[in-house]
Amino acid sequence: MEIQENLVKYKYHIIFTLITSLILASLLFLAPSFFTILAYFWPLLLSTALFLAAVVIFGNTTSTSGDKAAGEGLLDYVAGQPEHAVESFKLEGEELKTK
Predict the structure, then answer these.
(1) Per-residue pLDDT band at 23 (split at 50, 70, 90)
(2) How many angstroms separate the CA atoms of 7 and 12, rounded?
(3) Is-annotated flag, keyword Membrane (predicted)?
């Protein structure tokens, strides 16, 4: 009788353990392997790496004229914050403060 009482006492623990074990086992046997996923996504990973390398190269390119690097203007343009837009926005903000 003691064993049955303990089983009833811990029935939720046993059910939770069985369900968790079934889920983990199904994931291990049914899920694709890491290399399968890598084989599927390698073009995306490669293009992302090349893009990041291009950003670093453009960021480190120095200009022969002026203080700023040549790539910074391009990076500002791509980021959507060209200098003239930022300066005009600051001027508009100052005008609003003075009104």
Answers:
(1) very high
(2) 9
(3) yes
Distance CA 84, CA 30 (A): 56
pLDDT in tens, 40-77: 999 999 999 999 999 888 777 655 555 555 566 667 77
Closest listed residue to residue 59, CA positions, set 47, 71, 67: 71
Tell me if 52 sits within 8 A of 38, measured CB to CB: no
Taking residues 68-97, what's their average pLDDT?
61
Q: Which are the contacts of 70, defined by CB distance < 8 A and separation ≥ 6? A: 58, 61, 62, 63
C-beta neighbour count of 70 within 10 angstroms = 15
Dist. CA 13–CA 18, nearest whole Å: 9
Amino acid at 9: K
Task: Specify the pTM.
Answer: 0.40
Q: What is the C-alpha to C-alpha distance for residues 83 and 74, in angstroms, rounded to an integer?
A: 11
